[in-house]
Task: structure prediction
Amino acid sequence: MHFIYLLTSLSFTLLNCISLIDRHFELHPKTQKMFPRFHDVPRSELMSNKFFLQAAYNCFFGLTFMVKNIDDMALIDSLLIKFASASYYIAHPTAKQQLDETTRITLEVMKEELGSDVMTPEVSDAWKSLLNHVHEVLANRNELAPLSQDDLDVINTDWAIAKRNKQVGATTMLK
Result:
């Protein structure tokens, strides 16, 4: 992979990750519903929501981790596999279509935020290659461990509980 191209564009900051997530929510409003802590916060108020900002930090640090460890794809894959879950996808379109859309949106936002001086065709190709690898790992994991209808029912019940009680995770962890 083109490490130097990825590194030169690593100036993709936290604010750019905020733009990236916000663009996803703009184009695919259902995806915001996947975040119980800010699922019902209007997009215009997300910048002042600490849980939304936490998601943006996670996005930024995840991208930084992958770029800095690009020479150890097994390490990146092991991290991705831990986070891969069919429950992270909305019902339609397919997980693969959602991942492809994520790549498209990411590259689009990066070009807008970084400009064409930084986001050259070579840099764009390097990011596309990295993101395609990430998505391949996630999609393969999703295919290996698809959710049954019972699993989906449990997830939907959990979401309903989480929406009613935003402290459910902390409460459960303490028990």
